[in-house]
Design brief:
The chain has 5 helices and 5 strands. It is globular.
């Protein structure tokens, strides 16, 4: 099973290939046509000339894997138009393409967002166990104050 994580590098071949090729043939396409070595751990997505099938080639450290998706009717709605032989793609965009949708029209939120400057201060306040938040912790937590203020006399 292929797990698409945001950290995984994904490359889409812009030119169609013969989908009757297997792992070795598509690996040769990656080396010669895309200028990438197929054993680097990236996912390579290739399309047939008719636009009805996609093949994904990857190497996971133990062996190569080849997955194919062929549509029962119609063609894939989106494919990159670029002068480059390969185009990088995010994992989320690949999932949208595999569902035969247009990733640029999906209106999804950004993959990441900038953390606010206050966030670090709020995080330090919430943790409260280190020196920066010790004074605030004493105000919020009364257990340490009551433990030492009402010491029991020796019996």
């Amino acid at each position: 099973m292929l797990q698409l994580t945001p950290q995984r590098r994904i490359f889409v071949a812009t030119q169609p290939v013969a989908c009757r090729k297997g792992i070795d043939g598509l690996g040769a396409v990656c080396r010669q046509g895309l200028g990438e070595h197929p054993l680097t751990g990236a996912v390579y997505v290739l399309r047939n000339r008719a636009g009805t099938a996609l093949k994904r080639l990857l190497y996971d450290g133990q062996g190569s894997g080849l997955m194919m998706k062929r549509l029962s009717q119609g063609r894939f709605a989106w494919w990159p138009n670029s002068a480059d032989a390969r185009v990088p793609l995010s994992a989320r965009a690949l999932l949208i393409v595999l569902w035969n949708r247009h990733p640029e029209r999906a209106q999804m939120a950004c993959d990441w967002r900038r953390v606010a400057a206050d966030a670090a201060r709020r995080r330090a306040y919430a943790q409260g166990s280190h020196a920066a938040g010790a004074a605030q912790t004493a105000l919020r937590c009364s257990c340490s104050a009551t433990r030492y203020s009402t010491a029991l006399p020796p019996a």
